[in-house]
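thought: fold this chain, then report.
action: predict
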Amino acid sequence: MQDSLPGVLEILLSRGVPRSVLTAAHDTAQVQGVPFEEYLLRHAIVTTECLYSAFAELCNLPFLPENGFRLRTLNDRPLAIGEAEFGPTLLSLYRNQALYAIAPEPGQFLEVRRHLERHPVLAKQIRITTPAAIEYASHVSNSPAGELEIRFPSYSARHIRLPAVLLILCFLAVFVLGVSQMISGALLFVVTGVVSLACFGAGIIRFVCAQSSKEEDLVYHLPEPLSSGLIIWPRYTVLVPLYREAGVVPDLLRALNALNYPRDRLQILLLIETDDLETAAALPDDLPPHIEAVVVPDGTPRTKPRALDYGLAAATGTYVTVFDAEDRPDPDQLKKAAFLFAKGPAELACLQARLVVDNANETFISRQFALEYACLFDQLLPWLFRHRWPFPLGGTSNHFRISALHAVGGWDRYNVTEDADLGVRLERLGFRLGVLPCQTLEEAPVTLTAWLAQRARWHKGWLQTIFVHARSPRRLLRDLGAVRTAVLATLFLGTFLLIALHPVFFVLLTGSLLGYYDHTYFFGNILLTVMFVSGAAAGYAGALFALWTGARRRGHGIRLLDAPGVLIYWMFAGFAFYRAVWELASAPYRWNKTEHGVSRQRTSLTDWKPLPEAELK
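observation:
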């Protein structure tokens, strides 16, 4: 073969690819009648990025690597002239000149190069990239929902299905082993010891949290001078994602109108999906100037965090908060959050308000849900906050510095409990979380079917959060430190361990008591008996103390039936977890929608009137 190679091959030769390999590829491609660039890729002689960057160098044009650029879009669709993966696709309008990304097919390299040489003015507007890079940018693009994937792809829950399948197999194996009594000997001691220790630790933590919060005020009162009309409050944005919520729109607007915040400093964005015509029709035509309906462009996955990212892009406030459709926040909640942000350090990124169920005594499910919330928001989260430990956020009434949200990439549209993930990500990137002693009234599910669907989505999202942040354990340790990482692991993994194994042990214990298999080995061994009984007793006693303490403080009352009821509730939680594991493998981004407005025992809103403008200063 001649000493000089075709242009692209000469550049590859200068990059260290052996001449003999390139020569053989060129000759073989000619014999087979295929472009030699295509032959190089087909036989993995060079990578796609290597080949296209060599072509860019040959054309004396910039090369754009994958995840190294964004595309201009209209309604989340790239503005492309040619085929989507090959271009030209509009990059930007820079200095009144359009710039385009192209990724020609390998067989068109020579033709494209000659065309650019004949049109030097056009060549100045062209950037070379790979088809895969254009495809990635087309899916993620520069839409608000793709911000996290562009800047922090390792924090996205987009690709985590394989671990879920493995998790399913592991739990099935544990269940089969337990039922068939194949766990014995040393392994039985290990399993019993781990579970007993987890139960014991959970009980102690619940007791400590409940005891330490007994004297705390549930509601924070603003200092009297802050009621002055002379104060210039910061701009505040309220995001309210709505999907199939037509039935609660009237109550929602009444609750939002009751917010005690200057209207000229307040922006409320109602985020409505494109196809949700019913909710859009339920909105009045004469919305106040500070309330705006924002239509979220059609796209996937259809999740709450995706809508929130679009809301974040349109937000103008210094602070931003999220309310759900059924929420009834304390009218002074925005002012309290703004005041505590002003008093707090610059790294304080989020304040989580306390969520309170106001239909606690409607059904068994709603009561257990209310007791659970009382323990979580009145006891556990304040305790974690006092120790400066990370914690997962609630899905609503979390208040953010908007600058912190932008800094960490906003919400992850692929995580179905975006709140838990965002709380961990904020802490990992150097921000702090806090609690806001101010309440938001919420509606708990009243049926087991609705609760199981909602709880399965929560567990699925927590599993997504675990997989995302455990991708690099060394980096997680570096970001949080050993102690805070251990606390986070205990919160997530410890909780799931107890939830997942509760139905297993319940079934085994029931089967043993009914005589379905011989239990003399386990309960005949004094050490195993002591380990199991002490762990279970401590966990159960701590849980009951926390539940009754929280119920009394929140005015839910104390009922003796709560004691056996919590065991049944934990059983249902285990079933929801198993469903979550299955959904993580089969439908990881499906959003199990909770229907709102079904409760008949909620706090009446008839007396919640819009405050006079003179009072909103």
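thought: worth noting. The CA atoms of residues 21 and 289 lie 69 Å apart.
final: tokens above.
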